[in-house]
Amino acid sequence: MSDFSIFEYGLGIFQALLIIVLSPLIVGIMRKIKAKSQKRIGSGIFQLYYDIIKLLKKDEVVSDQSSWLFRYTPWINFVSIASAAFFIPVFLVYSPFGVVGDILFVVGLFALGRFFTMLAGLDVASSFGGLGSSREMMVSALLEPVLFMTIFVIALFYGGTNISTIVTSANDTSILIVPGVLFAMIAFFIIMMAETGKIPFDNPSTHLELTMIHESMVLEYSGKNLALMEWSHAIKQMILFALFVDIFFTWNFVEQISLVGISIGILFFIAKVSALASFTAFIETRVAKWRLFRVSDLIAMAISSSMIGVIFFFL
Amino acid sequence: MAENLFIVYAIFAFFSLGATLGLFTRGQKHHTYFTYIPSAFASLLTIILSVVVFSSENTHLTFFNIQHLFDFEIFIDGVSAFFLLIIGLISFAVSIYSLSYSKKFDDKKNNSALGMLFNIFILSMILVVISNNVFFFLIFWELMSLTSFFLVIYEHENKNNLKSGLIYLVMTHLGTGFIFASFILMYTQTGSFSFDSFRDVTIIPQYVKDIAFVLAFVGFGTKAGMVPLHTWLPKAHPSAPSNVSALMSAVMLKIAIYGIVRHLFDFNAVDGSPDYVWLGIGIIIVGSISALVGILYALIENDIKRALAFSSIENVGIIFIGLGFSVVFAAFHLQALSVLSFIASMFHTLNHSIFKGLLFMTAGSVYYSTHTKNIEELGGLIKKMPWTAMMFLIGSIAIVGLPPLNGFISEWLTLQSLLAVFQIPSNILQVSLAFTILVFALTIGLAGATFVRLFGITFLSKGRSTKAVNAVEVPKFMLIGKAILASSCVLLGILPFIGMNLIVSAFNLPYMSSSPFETISITNTSNSNFASLMMPGMLVILASVFVGVFVFVRIIGGKTKTIKYGTWDCGFGNLSEKTQYTATSLAEPIRRIFGVFYKPHNEVDVDFYTKENFYLKKSINVISTTKNIFDEKLYGKTISGSLFVLNKIRKIQSGKVNAYILYIMITLITLLLFVGFGTHE
């Protein structure tokens, strides 16, 4: 831990804060693009910031059936997901906190948040919560093999599960042409869609019990807790996007630490993530929500994609 | 040396005292104290004994020399000490728990037997681990099996318990038979029943060692619940009283692991022989299948204790995966990786003991308070039994392998050893072993779902029956027992090096860290950081993020009120507990996807007010069943097949004296012929 100076730790915290602070913006951009491609005007790209601030000031209504678990879940969820942001490089090729945890640890933190969210869905004694938890149970259990297999491929090609190692070696080589990594990218993209509740898996913009997974688990939240839930969901999405661009689109990391360099790095990062977000949002408008039991087919596709990636490495 | 002997005697004395007092203080007011306080003391002494052995050298003692063949030798090396520690820790917690729990059986006629068997059971497990001679090993193994059998059928008013006890008795003796065969095979080569001679690598040819190991693996594997010999486990473990279930799942399974480790690394001394590649792959395959099958059945199980027993099968599978990788790596001379996998496997052994003991005790508390094990009748217990709920939550987080608790560390280590397969110098093996990660990951995912379901349905939402609504928190001794293990979960999660250093010194591995705050660090072939994990650092990050967001929310949001109001009911009013998701419906999507294993079957029976009108339904009755394909296909077929054969054989029992005389004559002639041909040579 002693290899880094205080200044670099400061930069690391700054990177994490960037992810936490910029995440609602990305949600706003995605919503705007979705609205535009559906010929709607849509709300402004800063809408989620206003929502969060407004919700934070509001009184809460909690169910009389719920327990302490329901009330603390948003905090646990937020803390575990926001802590994961500390391991993600944004404009540097490394994170000074990389030594504390690796990509498996980030996955573990996400799983911790999800575990409590699923429990909170069950806590309120409504059938909506149970429905969401039940579906989330299925999707997350099936998603786990893809997730680990994809991490496996990435770890094989880039020599580690430590995110700093991965990003550094991804940055060193122009490895995009390697077919194994391409297959990992496909699988990672599907994971991203599933983890953030995008359309073939889940439709977060409706409150229709046929389509919803994540929304029905957080249906009973209001006020501060809802703000935390919404925000942590945005952060999770941002972390996954950041990981995606860090690993597969590695251009323009800051080599020399200077004010200009860092500013350019941040701008490039925002540009890359926004481009990815626009692409994801565009994809979302092009496909319909899949039937729940067809989702497993899509996941199977991702599994086979990542398996092909493994085979390509050993060939 | 001398003090070790003294401790061994003291352990023996305390357990005997507990057993005797348990028998004679029946009906007294404080009889549980007489029974379980000695066992708690003895368990503490066991922990002390293992710590003494860790800090000094191996202990080798010989008792009564009846004949050289049957020396009762005690040999406590690091391996034994490690398992002694597991036994001691869990038994201590369970003993304290039992102080209150066994009052549940106060009105039973034979409540004294429970205390006696409980003490003997723990003692027999300790003796198995420290004996150094085939003869006594098997005697104590058998003592352990029999006492646990009597404990399984302790509540014999319930016919199901008798049945599962019988299945357990048969299966455990099948396993013992295999172990026996393995030892006999070793004996034919060495001519001695002492384990010391088995350790002598040079005498025994490689192929004999392989066969002996496979036999021992099947034998010990039966006790450990490996698929497909697991069928007794989910029946027997839940049938016993909950304190004994905790001991059986948390400790007795580990004694089987001890047998395998002892055989594999002590008698067999795994080296670069290619045979070990195949043995290792065999263990990995068995482990993967056990892990997946175990968790799949745990997921749909409605009996809380049976679900936990199925999850034990899963965890034994994970332990086996680690062990198998360790053997494979060792066979390819990848020493460091072999050590990594071995630490992962043993750490999971330790962790599983802790959290499974904890979970069984909490399940026992739920049973104690509500008198039901069926989670469909539970719910809302988090408000009635807040401490028990907290403990169950800690156990669940740990067993699912989520940070920051101990399960995460061992699963992380196992995953890292899986990720290292690319260093194996064989292409086919690399690719095929790489796919183990699919099974492993699916297992972890399903484990998450299982414990969300178990915790959610048991403790959250509204109570589903009057039993759950009237539940009260359990007495304090039961809470203390659970708290000991829950705090171990937290401690080993945040300071994993306490456990890892223990394993390193127990098994004499070539790695040691100086402080428990160090980072677990793995480097790759080009010497940069492959992966690292620093749990104390992580705790700092989590804490500071929490403080940061708390302050942020307070500053921006200010003080707000919280209003309690009913759950959103779509305007219909009065949500009943029937509208909640049930345990079955919660698992329905997964049940449907993995239907191959469950063969789900729904029977819908609709009753109408009038036969002509199909719109006015009087009642709808749904019976939803699943099957265990192992019980049905494998055991069902085997049993019906052997019954068929035995029926045919029965015909020779005609009851006529003439026929029997004929049999005797045929036997005589055959024997004479046999002897005659024998002497010619």
Keywords:
heterodimer, A: 315 residues, mainly alpha, 11 helices, B: 681 residues, two-stranded antiparallel ribbon, two-stranded antiparallel sheet, 6% strand
Question: What's this entry about, in short?
Answer:
Chain A is mostly helical and 315 residues long.
Can you describe this structure?
The complex is a heterodimer of chains A (315) and B (681). Chain A has 315 residues and is mostly helical. Chain A has one domain (2-314). Helix content of chain A is 69%, strand content 1%. Chain A has helices at residues 6-37, 47-57, 68-84, 103-123, 127-158, 163-172, 179-195, 214-217, 223-248, 259-286, 295-314; one strand spanning 60-63. The longest helix of chain A is centred in the N-terminal third of the chain and has 32 residues, at 6-37. Chain B has helices at residues 2-24, 31-55, 78-101, 111-130, 134-152, 159-190, 195-199, 206-224, 233-239, 242-267, 275-300, 304-331, 335-370, 381-384, 386-400, 406-419, 427-434, 436-459, 466-469, 476-494, 496-506, 535-557, 583-586, 588-593, 595-598, 629-650, 657-680; strands at residues 59-62, 73-76, 520-523, 529-533, 562-565, 601-608, 617-625. In chain B, the strands form 3 sheets. A two-stranded antiparallel sheet of chain B has the order 1-2. A two-stranded antiparallel sheet of chain B has the order 3-4. A two-stranded antiparallel ribbon of chain B has the order 6-7. In chain B, strand 3 and strand 4 form a beta hairpin. In chain B, helix 1 runs antiparallel to helix 2 (31-55), helix 5 (134-152) runs antiparallel to helix 10 and helix 9 (233-239) packs across helix 10 (242-267). Strand 1 (60-63) of chain A pairs parallel with strand 5 (562-565) of chain B, so a sheet runs across the interface. Chain B: GO terms for molecular function: oxidoreductase activity. Chain B: It is found in: Cell membrane.
